[in-house]
Each structure stands twice: as C-alpha cells, then as structure tokens.
Write a structure and sequence with these properties.
Blueprint (H helix, E strand, L loop, with lengths): L12 H4 L7 H7 L1 H5 L3 E5 L3 H12 L16 E5 L2 E7 L3 H8 L3 H19 L6 E6 L9 H11 L7 E5 L12 H5 L4 E3 L4 H16 L10 H108 L3 H45 L7 H6 L1
Parallel strand pairs: 1-3, 1-4, 4-5, 5-6
Antiparallel strand pairs: 2-3
Helix pairs in contact: 5-6, 6-7, 10-11
Length: 390
C-alpha cells in the first residue's frame, strides 16, 4: 500500500493507491462490526489544555497527570468499555494559521498537507468522528474555522462525521448562536469526568455513523465508489456483449437444429415413401407370380390330358398292328414271338405311363411348395417361372 502526499483526486487514483481485493480499507468497510468496536477519534481545537483533558477523559487516564500532556501527530490507544479506542490530538496552531491569512483559502492550503496526513495516515483508513473541543457553549472564538477547513479540504460530507465536545456546562448560553453547533447539525456532548459520560459519547458516535453509507470517514471513499461504478459499467458492457454473443450463438444453433430436423423429417418421409413403393411392388409381383402359377397349373392339366389321349391312341395303333401282323405273316411262331416282344414293350410303356402321374404329382407338390415360399419371400419368387419352364 502506497499513499501520495496531499489530497487524492479521482483520476490520480491508480498512481496514488495500489489496491487489491484485500486492502485494509476494503476489509474495514466489509467488517463494520469490527470497525465500530475499534473507534478512531480525531480531536480538534485551539486550546491544548482543553484538548489534553478531553483526550485523557476519553481514554480513561484521568488520574495520570502526565497523560494529560498529549503530543500531536501520535495517536493514543486504550481499552474503553470493552472497545479499543484510538484518539489523535491535532495541533492547536491550525486555527492560528487560518486566522492569520486575509484570504481564508490560503490559510487552508497552508495546513492541507498536515490535515491529509492526520486523516489518511495516523488514523488509517479514516476516523469515525471529528471531535471539536470547546470550553462551553458560549461562542467565544473562531473554532468554526477548523470545520470550514475540513469542509474545504474533503468536501461537505465530512461535516456529517463532526461533533462538538463541551467540557463545562453553561446554562445561560444560547445554542442557536453557536456557529460550530450549526455546522455539526446540533450534534454535541457534554463530556464529564466519568465512565458513563464517555460511554454516552461513544454511543452518540455509533448513532451518528449508523446513518452513513460508511461507518467511518475516508478520504478515498468517493474514489473507490467512482472506481466501483467504472468497473461495474465495464462489467455490464462486457456482460451485454457476451450476452449478445451467446444469444447469437444460440440463435445460430437453433437455426442449425431446425434445419437438421427438417432434413431428418424429409429423409424419413422419403424413406417411408420408398418402403411403401417397394411394398406395393412386392404385392404386384406377388399377384403376377400367382397368375403365372395358375397358368402353369392349367398347362400341366392340359399336358396330362394330352398324355392320356396319346396313350389311348398308341394302344389302339398297337392293337391294329398286331392284328395286321397275324393276318399277313404265315409263321405263327414268329408272329407269336413278335407279339410277346410287343407285349413286353407295351407293358414297359404301360409302366412308364403309370409312373408318369406320380412324377406329375411330385412336380405339382414342388410347384405348390414354391408358391408358398414365393408368398413368404417375394424376392425369391421371381425365379419360379424360369424353373417351371425348364
């Protein structure tokens, strides 16, 4: 962590402050409960004796006379009511500087560096309250210049963390005429030399800081907010760009999926039509095969009839030949032998004719079996006609 001198302005943020996620400021802001248990108080005033007494009273060092002599630039710490309180006394000559300049802004410039040093370094990351110590409510001096100087250096928001401390009660003074009270929106406390009074002061500081976005004042809070806003805008822009890119990729993917579905549906439709056409072709082929089978059966019956007719004609012609041979041949024995041979031939032919119907029946069974097979396997039935023709 490195800090530059003087007031830090937005724009010089990256040069003046090297920040990561674990800077003490971020940790302090994220842990408000811990920060309020360790209050850091900055005491302002023009009277060293009054400021010393206020510091000693707050830290519980009222019995130690040496502790009344507080040196500026060095914070004092003590445990008060279970809290670790840090008190930093500022130089009393600040008010003298402010009053010595004819132009007030020049006086502010003369002590700006020291004010920044006290706020940013000694009470890092920032005080919970700025306590302006006055003797009583009577408006006797120019102490409100100190509040004006804080406002000119850090902005008017710092006045929301300021409170007036009175060490003595004054019942006859009008609080409405006190300029310091006006700038602190009437926030004040009568600090008495008791623990109860100190605890009441700390409770008032708690109440004052609870209404703020941060429980303590820091010179860099606005810079951090602006940086946070800048990074948030950058993140949102990147997020929108990424979202648009993802949306485009999603639309492209959805379009591609739609095209693939359409192609798939088209292919399925074409395949179904092809299957349907093939099934229709198989049915037509089956009908043709049945017609061819019926034609073969008719042809077979015709052949059977022709075979029977030819057998009858052959028997008749054989009988006529036998009769003619008996009358034309004088040699009876030869004719008898010839008749015997012819009878044998006729018997052999008869056996062949008797065996032919069995062969025809066997062929008919084969045709029937092929017909059944062709109905179960249409693709193989195309071979039946050629087989039958053979």
């Amino acid at each position: 962590m490195s800090w530059s001198k003087g007031k830090v302005k937005y724009g010089a943020y990256y040069d003046d402050l090297e920040m990561d996620e674990e800077t003490p400021l971020i940790r302090a802001q994220n842990d408000e409960a811990d920060s309020i248990e360790k209050p850091r108080l900055m005491v302002l005033g023009c009277d060293d004796a009054l400021m010393d007494k206020a510091c000693a009273t707050i830290l519980g060092e009222r019995e130690n006379r040496d502790a009344f002599k507080f040196r500026p630039l060095i914070p004092r710490k003590a445990s008060v009511g279970g809290r670790k309180v840090s008190v930093l006394k500022t130089p009393s000559y600040w008010l003298e500087h402010l009053k010595s300049y004819y132009i007030f802004s020049n006086g502010v410039k003369s002590i700006t560096y020291e004010i920044n040093h006290f706020v940013d370094i000694q009470l890092y990351p920032g005080p919970h309250a700025f306590l302006l110590v006055l003797k009583n409510m009577k408006n006797s001096g120019k102490e409100h210049y100190l509040l004006r100087a804080l406002r000119d250096v850090f902005g008017k928001e710092i006045l929301d963390f300021c409170m007036v401390i009175f060490l003595y009660e004054d019942r006859y003074s009008d609080p409405q005429r006190n300029k310091c009270l006006k700038k602190c929106k009437n926030r004040h406390h009568l600090l008495q030399n008791t623990d109860e009074s100190v605890n009441q002061l700390l409770e008032k500081i708690d109440t004052m800081t609870q209404q703020k976005s941060s429980r303590f004042y820091t010179n860099y809070l606005e810079s951090f907010r602006k940086a946070e806003s800048y990074f948030r805008e950058e993140f949102n822009a990147e997020y929108v760009e990424r979202e648009n890119k993802l949306r485009g990729e999603k639309e492209t993917a959805e379009k591609k999926i739609k095209e693939m579905r359409e192609q798939h549906t088209k292919k399925v439709t074409e395949l179904n039509e092809r299957i349907k056409d093939e099934q229709n072709g198989f049915k037509i082929r089956e009908i043709q095969l049945k017609k061819e089978l019926n034609a073969l059966k008719i042809r077979e019956n015709q052949l059977k009839k022709k075979l029977i007719d030819s057998k009858i004609k052959e028997d008749q012609s054989d009988k006529l030949l036998v009769t003619d041979d008996l009358y034309t041949t004088g040699n009876y024995e030869e004719q008898n032998e010839e008749l015997v041979k012819r009878d044998k031939k006729l018997d052999e032919r008869q056996r062949n004719l008797d065996a032919r119907p069995k062969e025809l029946k066997a062929g008919e069974r084969k045709l029937t079996q092929r017909d059944a097979e062709s109905s179960e396997h249409p693709q193989t039935t195309a071979e039946t006609p050629s087989a039958c023709n053979i």
